[in-house]
Write a structure and sequence with these properties.
Length: about 240
């Protein structure tokens, strides 16, 4: 069984109440949930929250939702708690609650990567960066990959640094990739990584996936051509023409 979990908390530092904001007549969390239901590979989709307002809202539009402990430091920890409630789920997909335009084909691509022979048990997606604005936006996480398609590092900074190359020519001289907020895990690895203490690199960049890399876990990365629009701040919401 493959379980899709959408972590959603109300108390976002940069955008409080983000899951309930309306986008084109539907809340952000409803949009994410409905997109996830379109996946051909997921067997079940559950919203995981610690907030009664989100819980009641998801129930009102007919979604499946579970309450989780409020002290979880990340969405991955929330997924790990939900995973224990579904022991029959061998694989767990963490679908970020602030990606209202995630495509079901991306979820299916992630699952194909996760289940591929030789998979390290963690998978995610990336997309080629097309603009200097995105390259220099710290809210857009960048990644660099090995020749075998695994993550070497993630950063809010534009990596790699192009020594001697003018800023406006970087995209002409190298392919940069943004990380898409979608993870897949084998259930055993999910429980292992959420038991790890926060690591130095994670604290520096405020990126939990660096904890996994620093502790020796491997992350398979598949490139997608499909664009996504993450909503991190109220300003991101204002840019949408919906």
């Amino acid at each position: 069984m493959i379980l899709g979990v959408i972590p959603a908390r109300f108390a976002s530092t940069r955008f409080p109440g983000k899951p309930l904001v309306e986008i084109g007549g539907r809340s952000m969390i409803q949009r994410v949930y409905e997109q996830a239901l379109k996946s051909e590979r997921l067997n079940k989709v559950v919203v995981a929250t610690d907030d009664e307002r989100i819980f009641e809202h998801v129930r009102a539009f007919g979604g499946e939702v579970s309450m989780t402990r409020p002290e979880h430091p990340s969405g991955t920890d929330r997924c790990a708690e939900i995973s224990k409630a579904f022991p029959e789920a061998e694989w767990v997909v963490n679908i970020q609650g602030d990606e209202p335009f995630i495509q079901p084909q991306q979820i299916d691509l992630l699952i194909d990567t996760l289940l591929a022979p030789g998979s390290p048990g963690i998978a995610t997606l990336a997309k080629k960066i097309e603009s200097v604005e995105a390259l220099d936006n710290p809210n857009i996480v960048k990644t660099v990959l090995s020749s075998t398609g695994e993550a070497l590092y993630f950063s809010r900074f534009a990596i790699p640094y192009m020594r001697g190359v003018p800023a406006e020519q970087r995209l002409e001289r190298h392919d940069f990739y943004k990380h898409i907020g979608l993870y897949g895990f084998h259930k055993t690895i999910l429980q292992q990584i959420t038991a790890l203490a926060p690591a130095t690199l994670e604290k520096a960049e405020s990126l939990e996936q660096l904890r996994w890399l620093e502790n020796g876990y491997r992350i398979a990365v598949r490139i997608t051509d499909m664009e996504t629009i993450g909503i991190d701040t109220p300003e991101d919401l204002e840019k949408l023409a919906l």
